[in-house]
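Dear colleague,

As promised, here are the two records you asked about, laid out in our usual form so they can be pasted straight into your sheet.

NAME FIELD: protein one
SEQUENCE, THEN STRUCTURE:
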Amino acid sequence: METFEKYLSTIKNEEHRSRMREVLEWINNRFPDMQPKIAWNQPMFTDHGTFIIGFSASKQHFSVAPEQKGIEMFSSEIKKSGYSYSSNIFRIRWDEPVNYSLLEQIIRYNRTDKADCSSFWRK
């Protein structure tokens, strides 16, 4: 989690910072073999050098970025969770519960789907 401390310190709202830390720690503990990384000023996790999932904080929510294919594969589950989404991200309002089961499914899907991927992003 040391990788993310500088980023987390930029989140001025203490509750938001705590919530983002909780999500990042959950992923780090659940998937200890993924690599935490800061790129494009955002926390993310990679696996064998390929992007798996990333996050960014804003005033009303934090965004989860599993790439477009991750959104497409899980759009119905994202919608059922009550999260708004676009083609590349979904948003979890700070006052909404985090659907950790959904996060786990997305991460497992991306890791499996990109197991043979040699580039950072899908092509």
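NAME FIELD: protein two
SEQUENCE, THEN STRUCTURE:
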Amino acid sequence: MGVIVVKMGGVASDNLDAAFFDQIKTWQSQGKQVVIVHGGGYYISEMMQRLGQEVHIQNGLRVTDAGTLEITRMVLLGQVQPLITTKFLAEGFHALGLSAGSDQLIQGDFLNQRELGFVGQVSQVNQALLTVLLEKEHIPIIAPLGITTEGQWLNINADEVACKVASALQAEALYLLTDVPGIRKQDEWLTRVSAEQVSQLVAEKVVTGGMLPKLASAQTALESGVTAVYITNSIVSQGTELYYQECLQLEA
């Protein structure tokens, strides 16, 4: 049974329209298992500004001191996740909000504590927990937070969490929803890009800012066995498909 992982970014409520839920229902009717990973950057920045806190972004990652970490946890677990979970429940899905504290779902390590503070990277995903939930036809809705082996919470880029979850579950598809319909090169929206071509796009500065960690995570997912990654603004549109080219090279 195939697994599809969807990472929601931007303003979460903008993604949750009738077409979104119809697609989830279609996938389930086809026997697919669905996992949602949500971001919350828009809401976190909004709350920080309301509280008079400065927002610092470095290479697409939020510099996270102790205060920022507390705001991030508060917003993700107290605002964004309940919003998404409630909408799924209202549509009749068996949705379940999860975080790093759910049986050590997301274990993490510091990425660069000196420069980024409490920003982490995923070291391990509790694949067994997700498998049990998926077999019971639940839709896990996962917040992008991790916990170290010492019990320290970490702010982790949602794209990385989605990619690591997709890798752990050997997903057949990973959708990275963003506020643009794909990767743009000059005046053209690219429909297909190999993992090997991503490095060239980065070197040419075709992609910058928040797209950088997104593409780095997507490359890792493809190399770890995820069949295809789609960068798009809607799950009913494939946007830019990223694929691993190794099999094509063997056939050549």
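A couple of things worth noting about protein two: The first strand starts at residue 3 and ends at 8. Residues 109 and 194 are 29 Å apart (CA to CA).

Best,
R.
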